[in-house]
Amino acid sequence: MTADQLQAIIAAGLTCEHLEVSGDGRHWAALVVSSEFEGLRTLARHKRVYDTLGDRIQKDEVHALSMKTYTPSEWGGK
User: Fold this and answer.
1) pTM (2 decimals)?
2) CATH code that applies to domain 3-75
3) Longest CA–CA separation in the chain, Å
4) How does pLDDT run along the chain (78 residues), one tens digit per residue?
5) Could you give the CA distance from residue 62 to residue 70 in angstroms, rounded to a whole number?
6) Crossing angle of helices 3-13/42-52, nearest 10°?
7) Whether 26 contacts 63, CB under 8 Å
8) CB atoms within 10 A of CB 21
9) Is residue 1 within 8 Å of residue 19, measured between CB atoms?
10) Element (H, E) at 33
């Protein structure tokens, strides 16, 4: 899997105002800004991103994903 593929998977399942994905093919980092995170705590935001991956975690297509998740107002164009 490439960073572009992983980014497309996340973007297909979550409305993102900003999305960056980087990694080495097994270990990934994502910066996700979404209005869908409004009112959600960090754990629920991360679950929302993991939900976009479906069974790719169980199949080890995505081995590890660290995330920073923000609402648009929290992000503010950092």
Assistant:
1) 0.91
2) 3.30.300.90
3) 35
4) 899 999 999 999 999 999 999 999 889 999 999 999 999 999 999 999 999 999 998 888 898 999 999 999 999 855
5) 22
6) 110
7) yes
8) 21
9) no
10) strand 27-33
